[in-house]
Amino acid sequence: MNSIWFFEDVNLFKVLCPHKFKKYKSAHCFDTYKKQDYIYFEEEASNKVFLIEKGKVKIGYYNEDGSEVIKAILTKGQLFGEKAILGENTRDEFAQSIENTTSICPIGVDTMHDLMRDNQTFSFKVYKFIGFKFQKLERRLKLLMFKDAKTRLAEFLEELCHEYGYDCQKTGDKIIQHPYTQKDIASLIGTSRPTLNILLNELKEQNVIEFNRKEIRIYKKMA
């Protein structure tokens, strides 16, 4: 299954990037960011949306006590800052590069509205993306608020199966080839990296999963 979970095998960068449209091609540019660079901050004016050409971006916010909550980690082909399309005036989250070679395509809200007005199919895909993304975010926030770390990991692995998993024809196991580091996964399920390692190793010892840096195998008998 394609990693762009909300778009039925469509890479958003290929579909939405303005350099694909003659009218906007001459004014189109990319911005580059290094690891820990911010693309935008909370309370900043919300007047653009962003497409990831390459690299990785985390989206999050800070609690009153200053602790960081990670809402999403996004990779190549994905869109963020999309609430600007819906009329958001200021950001209620931050976006930060977490790789040294992140390349972003910024798109002004007016340009997006023009593209959506001129192309109904394009407009439908954008709104479909926003709807599915909000559903996914709501599920993740409920997990963080109401479930323990072990349950959060189990449900996150199930989510990864839907987004990145495929069946191994020889064994029937579920193979998940994903873009996340263990640090990313720990952030997304709201736990520490040492705790995540303990939980993953427990599942490995129970013969539920096998894992390495970029792949998780869920054995058929447990899938």
UniProtKB/TrEMBL annotation:
<dbReference type="GO" id="GO:0003700">
    <property type="term" value="F:DNA-binding transcription factor activity"/>
</dbReference>
<dbReference type="Pfam" id="PF13545">
    <property type="entry name" value="HTH_Crp_2"/>
</dbReference>
<dbReference type="InterPro" id="IPR036388">
    <property type="entry name" value="WH-like_DNA-bd_sf"/>
</dbReference>
<dbReference type="InterPro" id="IPR050397">
    <property type="entry name" value="Env_Response_Regulators"/>
</dbReference>
<dbReference type="GO" id="GO:0003677">
    <property type="term" value="F:DNA binding"/>
</dbReference>
<dbReference type="Pfam" id="PF00027">
    <property type="entry name" value="cNMP_binding"/>
</dbReference>
<feature type="domain" description="HTH crp-type">
    <location>
        <begin position="147"/>
        <end position="222"/>
    </location>
</feature>
<feature type="domain" description="Cyclic nucleotide-binding">
    <location>
        <begin position="12"/>
        <end position="91"/>
    </location>
</feature>
<dbReference type="InterPro" id="IPR018490">
    <property type="entry name" value="cNMP-bd_dom_sf"/>
</dbReference>
<keyword id="KW-0804">Transcription</keyword>
<dbReference type="InterPro" id="IPR012318">
    <property type="entry name" value="HTH_CRP"/>
</dbReference>
<dbReference type="GO" id="GO:0005829">
    <property type="term" value="C:cytosol"/>
</dbReference>
<dbReference type="InterPro" id="IPR014710">
    <property type="entry name" value="RmlC-like_jellyroll"/>
</dbReference>
<dbReference type="InterPro" id="IPR036390">
    <property type="entry name" value="WH_DNA-bd_sf"/>
</dbReference>
<keyword id="KW-0805">Transcription regulation</keyword>
<dbReference type="InterPro" id="IPR000595">
    <property type="entry name" value="cNMP-bd_dom"/>
</dbReference>
<protein>
    <submittedName>
        <fullName>Crp/Fnr family transcriptional regulator</fullName>
    </submittedName>
</protein>
<keyword id="KW-0238">DNA-binding</keyword>
